[in-house]
Recover the amino acids of this structure.
C-alpha cells in the first residue's frame, strides 16, 4: 500500500461532540460549539472577533466585501498561492497585482511591494506560506504609510507566530482554513478574524445573508431584516462540533507535526550539503507550525524524476502551485508588477512530502525513498 500525501488526523472526540450537537437539537450555525470555537480563536489571536465560515475562501470573500473592494481597484498579492487569495477580489471586480516571492521563505517579497502600489491600490493580501510568517513589520509599515488595508491569508498559519505574535493578528482582517489538508481540520471550514473593530458589525451581517439576524438573537433589535449585501458564510453546528474536538487538541497536534518536520529536516541535511536539494528556511523570528515539509529540487526535470521515483517506491508526493500570473484566469484578471523570476523558478522545483500526524514509522520509508530519489534525480 502506498503512503498517502495527507491523511486527516482525528482526535477521537469528534463524534462525541457531534452526538452532543445532535442531542441539543440545534443544527444550524452559531450554536454552543460555534461559540466555543469563536472564543478559542479570539484568545489565540487576540482578535476583536472571530467568525467561523464554511471555508477560508468564504472568509477571504467576506474580507473583500468588508474592505470595500470595488471594480477597478487593485490588490497586491503573491502569485505563488492558492487561487482563493485572488478570486475573492476578482469576484468584486478588482485586479490582482502579483509581486514576486522571497527565495528563502517563498513568501511575498516585501521589498517589491512599494513599486506595485498605484493610485488604484486598496489592499495588500499576504499569504503565510507553509505557516511561516511574512515580514509583517515591514508590510504593516508600508500599508500604514500608503493608507492600504492588509488582509492575511493565514489559511496555513494557525498556531504559528511572527516575532512572538500569532499569524492572523496583524491585518485588519485575516482568514484561516480548516480544510482537511490543513493542520486543524473540519473537512471544509474556515474562520474570519477581525482585528479592526470597525468591521465587526458589518461582518456579522454579511455572514448572515445581509440580515441583522445576529443582533436580533442578542436582543439588540426587535425584528430582523435585510440591511446590506451578504451571503451564507456560516457553517452548521455539526461542523463546529467536529472543529471543537480539533481546536481543543491544537497544541499536541502542532507539537507532533513539528517533531515529524524536524525529523525530515535532520534526515535531509546531507542531501542539501551535496546540493541535491534545498530544505525549507524558517527565519529565527518565525515560529512555524509544521504545516508542510517541502524540498526544492535543482530544476523541473529533476523534480519530475524525483516524484516518479518516489511514486515507484509507493510514496505519494505532490507539487503546487501553478503561479497565478501564468494560469488562464490569472492572465485574464490579473497583472504582474516587476519580475516573476523567483516565483517561476521555485514553483518548478518544489515538491511536498507526506506530512500528517499519524505518519508514524512510514516516515522512515519516506526518508529512505527521498534520499534515493534525490540522488537519482540528479543523474
Ligand atoms: C487552503 C488554502 C486556501 C483555501 O482554503 P479553503 O478553506 O479550502 O477555502 C486559501 N489560501 C491558501 C494559501 C490555502 O493554503
Amino acid at each position: 500500500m502506498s503512503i498517502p500525501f495527507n491523511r486527516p488526523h482525528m482526535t477521537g472526540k469528534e463524534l462525541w461532540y457531534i452526538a452532543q450537537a445532535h442531542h441539543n437539537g440545534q443544527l444550524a450555525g452559531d450554536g454552543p460549539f460555534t461559540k466555543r470555537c469563536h472564543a478559542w480563536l479570539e484568545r489565540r489571536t487576540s482578535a476583536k472577533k472571530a467568525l467561523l465560515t464554511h471555508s477560508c475562501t468564504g472568509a477571504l470573500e467576506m474580507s473583500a466585501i468588508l474592505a470595500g473592494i470595488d471594480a477597478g481597484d487593485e490588490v497586491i498579492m503573491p502569485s505563488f498561492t492558492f487561487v482563493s487569495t485572488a478570486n475573492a477580489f476578482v469576484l468584486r471586480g478588482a485586479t490582482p497585482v502579483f509581486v514576486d516571492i522571497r527565495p528563502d521563505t517563498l513568501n511575498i517579497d516585501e521589498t517589491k511591494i512599494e513599486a506595485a502600489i498605484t493610485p488604484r491600490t486598496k489592499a495588500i493580501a499576504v499569504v503565510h506560506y507553509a505557516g511561516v510568517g511574512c515580514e509583517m513589520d515591514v508590510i504593516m509599515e508600508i500599508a500604514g504609510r500608503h493608507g492600504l488595508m492588509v488582509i492575511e491569508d493565514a489559511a496555513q498559519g494557525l498556531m504559528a507566530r511572527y516575532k512572538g505574535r500569532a499569524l492572523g493578528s496583524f491585518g485588519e482582517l485575516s482568514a484561516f482554513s480548516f480544510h482537511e489538508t490543513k493542520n486543524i481540520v473540519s473537512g471544509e471550514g474556515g474562520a474570519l478574524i477581525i482585528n479592526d473593530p470597525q468591521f465587526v458589525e458589518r461582518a456579522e451581517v454579511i455572514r448572515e445573508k445581509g440580515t441583522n439576524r445576529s443582533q436580533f438573537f442578542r436582543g439588540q433589535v426587535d425584528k430582523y431584516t435585510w440591511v446590506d449585501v451578504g451571503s451564507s458564510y456560516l457553517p452548521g453546528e455539526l461542523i463546529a462540533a467536529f472543529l471543537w474536538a480539533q481546536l481543543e487538541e491544537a497544541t499536541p497536534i502542532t507539537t507532533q507535526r513539528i517533531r515529524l518536520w524536524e525529523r525530515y529536516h535532520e534526515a535531509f541535511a546531507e542531501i542539501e550539503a551535496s546540493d541535491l536539494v534545498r530544505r525549507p528556511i524558517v527565519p529565527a523570528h518565525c515560529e512555524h507550525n509544521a504545516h508542510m515539509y517541502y524540498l526544492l529540487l535543482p530544476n523541473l526535470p529533476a523534480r519530475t524524476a524525483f516524484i516518479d521515483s518516489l511514486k515507484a517506491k509507493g510514496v505519494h508526493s505532490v507539487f503546487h502551485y501553478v503561479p497565478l500570473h501564468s494560469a488562464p484566469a490569472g492572465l485574464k484578471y490579473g497583472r504582474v508588477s516587476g519580475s516573476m523570476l523567483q516565483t517561476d523558478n521555485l514553483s518548478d522545483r518544489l515538491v511536498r512530502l507526506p506530512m500528517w500526524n499519524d505518519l508514524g514509522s512510514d516516515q522512515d520509508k519516506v526518508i529512505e525513498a527521498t534520499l534515493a530519489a534525490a540522488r537519482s534525480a540528479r543523474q
Notes: The chain has a mean pLDDT of 97. Residues 101 and 107 are 5 Å apart (CA to CA). Residues 250-267 form the longest helix (18 residues). The chain has two domains: 14-248, 250-378.
